[in-house]
Write a structure and sequence with these properties.
about 270 residues; seven-stranded mixed barrel; alpha/beta; single chain; Glucose Oxidase, domain 1; 7 helices
Length: about 270
């Protein structure tokens, strides 16, 4: 077992010990739970080149001949839209698919780097190494196994496609405009700080005008997944929250819908 994975398991063990106290019961009153997930519905925003939208079709709804109520639906969705996770296979051949992502990487301590003010004046802003170092000077070094979250403030535009993506056309991605990670910042977080996940409250861990998707490639090369289209990051502290990001277990998937929840100790 390598050092980073051992650290993650130690963190999870400590977390479980805190959650399951002497009464062997989870005390929800000790934590503030924050849902960082956009709902899936007709307004869900997908990457412009994805084919299709979210569809929920009713199969049954009403009283049965036996006298009880019954409801059932079928749904269909592309992998990359709404609040979802990119598996490393999305941009790196031979890397992890969705069902193979280790659970200990999807539950961990969150660090929230806030660039909302800079993004407000430059919608193509990319996180820099300087931004990370400034964060670390104030809040401490980003520890291995952390889940790095980038707050741009972009979730306020959801579900307005034009303002959120910078271009409301479907089928083309050449004119997108929104902030995200810069390449060198991603290298620092993924290769040097060895974070477990990169997350952002925009449509991509690459900024909108990217054509080479270098941040995806940097992360995927190290089997680091990406969380995209998050919301509510303003409710999280820079450090101290625990993130739980559990996707649908789609065998062979390059990504899929994910429910992302933060646990923030009240004390």
């Amino acid at each position: 077992m390598n050092r980073i994975r051992r650290q993650r398991l130690i963190y999870l063990t400590s977390l479980l010990h805190a959650l399951v106290q002497e009464t062997h019961a989870f005390d929800p009153g000790a934590y503030r739970l924050v849902d960082l997930t956009q709902p899936f519905n007709k307004q869900t925003i997908y990457w412009p080149t994805e084919r299709g939208n979210f569809e929920l079709r009713r199969l049954a709804y009403g009283d049965t001949p036996a006298g009880y109520f019954y409801s059932a639906n079928t749904f269909c969705t592309p992998e990359h839209g709404g609040t979802h996770i990119d598996a490393p296979i999305h941009f790196a051949q031979g890397k992890l698919t969705l069902e193979a992502l280790p659970l200990e990487e999807l539950i961990g301590p969150a660090v929230v780097i806030d660039i909302a003010r800079k993004a407000q004046s430059d919608r193509d802003y990319r996180l820099t190494v300087g931004d990370i170092l400034a964060f670390e000077q104030k809040h401490g070094t980003v520890a291995p196994g952390s889940i790095a979250l980038l707050r741009t403030g972009w979730s306020r535009f959801w579900p307005d496609r034009k303002h959120y993506l910078g271009d409301e056309r479907r089928g083309a991605a050449a004119r997108l405009s929104f902030p995200s990670y810069g390449a060198e910042a991603a290298r620092l977080l993924v290769e040097e700080r060895q974070v477990a996940v990169l997350g952002v409250d925009t449509a991509s861990i690459d900024y909108g005008r990217a054509q080479d998707f270098i941040v995806h490639r940097i992360a995927a090369a190290k089997n680091v997944p990406g969380l995209e289209n998050l919301t509510g990051l303003e409710a999280l502290p820079p450090r101290g929250a625990t993130l739980i990001a559990l996707p649908m277990k789609i065998e062979g998937g390059s990504g899929g819908p994910v429910r992302v929840v933060a646990l923030i100790p009240k004390r």
